[in-house]
Amino acid sequence: MKARFTPALFAHAEAVLGQLLRFEHPADAVVSRYFREHRQLGHADRAFVAETVFAVLRRKRSLEARCGNPPTPRRMLLAALAVVRGWNQRELAPVLKASETEWLATVRAVAVADADLPPAVACDLPDWLYERLAAQFGADEVPKLAQALNQPAPLDLRVNTLKTDRDSLLAALAADGIAAEPGALSPFAVRLRDKPALARHPLFLGGAFEVQDEGSQLLGLLLEPKRGEMVVDFCAGAGGKTLLLGALMKNTGRLYAFDVSDKRLANLKPRLARSGLSNVHPGRIEHERDLKVKRLAGKVDRVLVDAPCSGLGTLRRNPDLKWRQGESAIAELTVKQAAILDAASTLLKPGGRLVYATCSLLTAENEAIVESFLARHPGFAPVPAQGILGSPVGAGDMLRLLPHVHNTDGFFAAALERRA
Fold first, then answer.
1. Radius of gyration over alpha carbons of the chain, in Å?
2. 403, 409 in Cβ contact below 8 A?
């Protein structure tokens, strides 16, 4: 159902955007709080507000270049509706003032002349990030990557194989009028055509699926946990990958879910209850050198390190990150990532496997961390990702997923084996 476009609905979008452009808090948290404070907004109204303000965040630099001074939230919203979402003057009529008609025509004309914008502006990236990506991927590739990052992400599900299989889930969704198709990379992935509300759907409440990007699912497959093993999810967060690991272990063995955040681990509890897993043991740790970690030294078969990172591979979902991050933050993160990887590696027994992963696009957080680790730890060796996952993910020792190539979030992962 489409929202009815009214001045009141536009005012809600303007109010939310005004808060977002201060970049004081994560965008999804700001939007969620606003919706809790305005419960009169229905599903369609919320979808309109969220999609429109996120369109502004994605295309902020090019919209500012088109809007002229000052690029107010109102002007940015009108420009986004006209340029990004393609609305015509008749569709904008409920809110468009007579004095804005000529201005909006100019905005549309500037939009046609994208080639005249500086490359970083045309790609809607901050200068520092454009320069890093151009150095990594080449100036010709960055516009393709940026275009994919500036699109909304599809909605992916992961089948809970303890409760059902992919074909059965697809059939059940189709019976409820929810269009979906199998994922291309993960055997557990289902991609929805639209974005229906699923939080109260019986299949969700019954634990048949979890929402999880298809690329994220490959990290668990790269770890390959087996029945009866001892496995640690070192930075478990809210547990999306933990649940996949538990299912791959057929609900046997012992799976520790460690995190430094009580709040994130609390979010794991209802998901764990729906999943049917009984082999998961959540545990809060103070830091990577916590006593809980030290007690497991040399005893663990597999360790997943989904390291804290810039999140720049998730810009389709979190476009504010590119405006809230900076080079100094990246430098701080790489120190933390190296320390976490060193600590997690002590858990492995000889022959054990560790997967280091991020949802970052940057070499500094990815290959550089792994290469430095291997130089310091000659007892570890890389396990080629393609040999584990097969051909769809490309060649090479390390896994790199890119939105414009794989239609997933941007992910990096390296599998490392302790040889001695």
1. 23
2. yes
pLDDT in tens, 143-157: 999 999 999 999 999
To 10 degrees, what angle do helices 43-58 and 7-20 make? 50
Which pLDDT tens digit goes with each residue over 221-264?
999 999 999 999 999 988 999 999 999 999 999 999 999 999 99
CA distances from 223 to 10, 244, 294, 307, 374 (A): 47, 11, 21, 15, 18
The CATH label, of 3.10.450.50, 3.40.190.10, 3.40.50.150, 2.60.300.12, for the domain at 214-418 is 3.40.50.150
Strands, DSSP E only, in 42-172? 155-159
Q: Which amino acid is it at 128? A: W
Domain ranges of the chain: 7-117, 214-418
Distance from the first to the final alpha carbon of the chain: 59
- In sequence order, what E strands does 229-294 have? 230-233, 254-259, 280-284
| DSSP secondary structure string for all residues of 248-281 | HTTT-SEEEEEES-HHHHHHHHHHHHHHT--SEE
Of 263, 256, 267, nearest in space to 290 by CA: 256
Catalytic residue check, 359: yes
- Residue 288, token pair as written in the block: 């990577």
- What's the one-letter identity of residue 235? C
Can you tell me the distance from the alpha carbon of 340 to that of 362, in angstroms, rounded to the nearest whole number? 18
Contact 233, 249 (CB under 8 A): no
**pLDDT tens track for 88-144:** 988 999 999 998 988 998 888 766 556 678 999 999 999 999 999 999 999 999 999
**Which amino acid would we find at residue 353?**
R
pLDDT score recorded for residue 251: 97
Question: Of 123, 235, 309, 359, which is the active-site residue?
Answer: 359
Residue 105 has what pLDDT?
A: 87
